[in-house]
Amino acid sequence: MLESRVAAEGREFSPALFLIQGAGPPATTPVLLILNQPITDFDTFSRLWSRSGYRICADGGANRLYDIFEGELKSRRGNYVPSAVHGDLDSLRDNVRLYYESLGVEVTQDHDQYSTDFAKAMNKVSSIHTNSSLRDIILLGTLGGRVDQGLGLLHEMIREETRDPLLRLWLFSESSVSFILRGNCNIIRALISSQCFTRNVGLVPIYGPAIISTSGLEWDVKDWDTQMGHQVSTSNHVVADNVEVKTSAPILFTVERVPTIA
């Protein structure tokens, strides 16, 4: 079964495929999930939009999408219409709702007060996109602002991936892309040749203790115990185009993006 093979063998990650114009397609056509957080980099946003198929705004994420098209970008707003807006809708502005509904966007409400708008949007995506292959979901959000919300987002990422071993979440925040590594072997490809990233990476065991081995980093480790409050590999540097990470438990891998992508 694919699920057991993923757990045993790990995965390959090619984050540059979401950013390079004219590149070959990712392994799957990703979903773009826009959270209710500022969109600070229009160039990265537009590239992620063009590489995705289904695009969903989590409640006030629709406000963020609408608001970036002001000033000189206002005429382009109609070219960036989401597939759906979903959440408890307590943050969605009336003018934004009316605008997208007038363009045929599905706007749906979930009154559950025990889940976040991110979780509600994920449930919406799961109800529409069901198959037995690897699935990529791009999260457009932030780890800045409120610390509790940033940590809560990282918590929800591991929760969603634990529920569905065929799911792969990519968090594009202000200046980085972060994703979860798990399984015996993980290979992150084209970190240098793509020219999308700086050499700065971090391997953070925010989900609990792990034993990791790496190759392709300036400070490689072998059978290295890593744990929050003890030793952690942050501010490491990429020295090979492909980086390999073996880990005994899930860890968060983060690589910094270059300010301008070629």
From TrEMBL:
Task: Output the InterPro entries linked to this UniProt entry.
Answer: Thi_PPkinase (IPR006282), Thiamin_pyrophosphokinase_euk (IPR016966), Thiamin_PyroPKinase_B1-bd (IPR007373), TPK_B1-bd_sf (IPR036371), TPK_catalytic (IPR007371), TPK_catalytic_sf (IPR036759)
Any one GO BP annotation for this protein: thiamine diphosphate biosynthetic process
> Pathway, according to UniProt?
Cofactor biosynthesis; thiamine diphosphate biosynthesis; thiamine diphosphate from thiamine: step 1/1
- Which positions make up the signal peptide? none
One Pfam family name from the record?
TPK_catalytic
Query: What is this protein identified as?
Result: Thiamine pyrophosphokinase
Q: So what EC number does this one have?
A: 2.7.6.2
- Enzyme class, top EC level, equals transferase
Catalyses which reaction?
thiamine + ATP = thiamine diphosphate + AMP + H(+)
